[in-house]
Amino acid sequence: MLIPTSVVALMISIYPVSDWLIEPLEKRFLAPETLPDTVDGIIILGGGEDVSVGISWNSKEIGLAGDRFISTQELAQIYPKAPIIFTGGVGQLTMHSHLQMQLSTQNSPLGSQILQGLGIEPERLVVERLSRNTFENFKNIQPLLPNSTGRYLLVTSAYHMPRSVGIARKLRINVIPYPADYRSTHENFRRIDFDFYGHLQALEPAWKEWIGLTAYYWTGKTSEWFPKEN
Residue 105: what pLDDT? Predict the structure, then answer.
């Protein structure tokens, strides 16, 4: 048992084999080459904020997926009249209870505070803060959308986009993927570097996402197992 385990650990340590697992997810949906003239809103899925650290220190902390906020801020400048629809809670039960305590003392969750800190006006924000997973993200914002048949830019991590689009299609929410937070590198830049921790940062979300795609498809929460561009 030790020999194959050691071989796998060595492979992960010396070379970004994790890119082979996460790259197909990140390449499935690309940002549009030309953005539409108008949209009915910009949806950003929570997960870019570091809730545990933020609550611990009462600060606006972003995590590995913080690029979601940067992309949303850039889109907010392109579409100055479009509402920003933030949806995000905490999946972990222990953190969910802490989040509820935070919300009882603050007017807005950490994600919307970060967006406001980036210059987005509070009146533009539509906030959903009780969802615990991606399916609940879309289910809970459905009645909050300004136009149920409108067209919305969707911002989330690139590896997370296929499952997110699949759920949106299942619920008949018309979204335009705008991926952020890429974790893989182009094959020309992959090399032996002994960056075990860095490789794990791509490997962990990759295998979890493949499992999530399968579980959501089996339970009827997505339109396809591995959604793709229409």
Answer: 43
Q: Can you tell me the distance from the alpha carbon of 45 to that of 193, in angstroms, rounded to the nearest whole number?
A: 33
Is 223 inside any structural domain? no
Query: 115: buried, middle or exposed (CB in 10 Å: 19+, 13-18, 0-12)?
Result: buried
Range picked from 41-45, 131-135, 183-187 for highest mean pLDDT? 41-45
Q: What is the CATH number of the domain that holds 164?
A: 3.40.50.620
Structural contact between residues 84 and 44, judged by C-beta atoms closer than 8 angstroms: yes
Residue in the block written with tokens 């802490």: 98
C-alpha span between 207 and 213 (Å, rounded): 10
DSSP classification of residue 83: P
pLDDT at position 104 is 41
Task: Give the whole-angstrom CA distance, residue 89 versus residue 100.
Answer: 9
Residue 79: give the domain boundaries. 38-183+195-218
Question: Model confidence over 8-43: pLDDT tens digits?
Answer: 666 666 666 778 889 999 999 999 999 999 999 999
Residue 17 lies in a domain: no
Residue 159: DSSP 8-state: G
For the chain, how many structural domains are there in total? 1
The DSSP bridge partners found for residue 103 are: none
Q: Look up the pTM and report it.
A: 0.84
Residue 106 lies in a domain: yes
Residue 143 in domain: yes
The span from the CA of 198 to the CA of 161, in Å, is 21
- What does the alpha-carbon distance between residue 153 and residue 85 come to, in Å, rounded to a whole number? 10
